[in-house]
């Protein structure tokens, strides 16, 4: 333990914690908690359950945010006390205390790094829940199978992080896999975190569908949009929407519903199409489809606004390439993000939802790219 400089480590932890606290605006968080607590205490709030849910969810999120910051400060104080106590103990007890203090330092540093990433999520819609759509691309049946692999990967990621999800639509391919799938991730900052996953994903492997065992490259696209809120007020005239109804079906065309409850909604001015079939009634599917359509139009409006800003600011190199990540299962094992350079050799872990390191690297890369664009 003599080689570990606790004084320097504690000073650095305090400095990182202080910089995060400054950027996080502790006073603003405390004001928000006070305002939300006052609203939550109003007996009339529950006259509108949806608004009440939004208020209580926002309050819980702000309280958790404040607790993360204050608890880490307290843990740094505790480590300093442990090191001081070790100086007065016998060698064996001192060794145990210092070992515990070093382990705690490692844990605190990891938590601070996670908090640093959250601080970078300061975009207009980053705090929102997310709607994710996965579509198979070039590669035939392998691409459809890859789309299904990606769906499982993201659902497992959400499960591991304790984020509730809701599957909205699945369109199965004829032989295997998925043509497309859409789902919600219902957690604060889900959009901010998952938005760095948007783009084209590539899979290289020996195709299980090729009887000659040849290597196959296939592609799938991931789209991430923020879930709209009532305050967004995206009004869509009925004349701009075409609604088709059809019968829900599962793999192989097996009927899972005996009524025409599935809904396909087309926004005529933009050509955006949304399909929903996972709810039990046509009305529920129509409401879910409209919500996702509004979310996509919200993001489209934001992209148009950003495009205008870029035009005024001059040409800035594109932030996203057509292909953002490769999953190579043959002739070697590697998942690599082509934007950040981050890679992992444990492909099974990544495809089982081990995405946090990729997402964190993507958030840091995006923040540095935005900073470079402003310079």
From TrEMBL:
Compartment list: Cytoplasm
Keywords: Coiled coil, Cytoplasm, Methylation, Protein biosynthesis
GO molecular-function terms, A-Z: translation release factor activity, codon specific
PTM characteristics: Methylated by PrmC. Methylation increases the termination efficiency of RF2.
Pfam family, one: PCRF
Segments forming a coiled coil: 273-310
Superkingdom as given in the UniProt entry: Bacteria
Domain (Prokaryotic-type class I peptide chain release factors): residue spans on this chain: 247-263
N5-methylglutamine found at: 254
Gene Ontology CC terms: cytoplasm
Function of the molecule: Peptide chain release factor 2 directs the termination of translation in response to the peptide chain termination codons UGA and UAA.
HAMAP family associated with the record: Rel_fac_2
Family membership noted in the UniProt record: Belongs to the prokaryotic/mitochondrial release factor family.
This protein's name: Peptide chain release factor 2
Organism: Rothia aeria F0474
Gene assigned in the entry: prfB
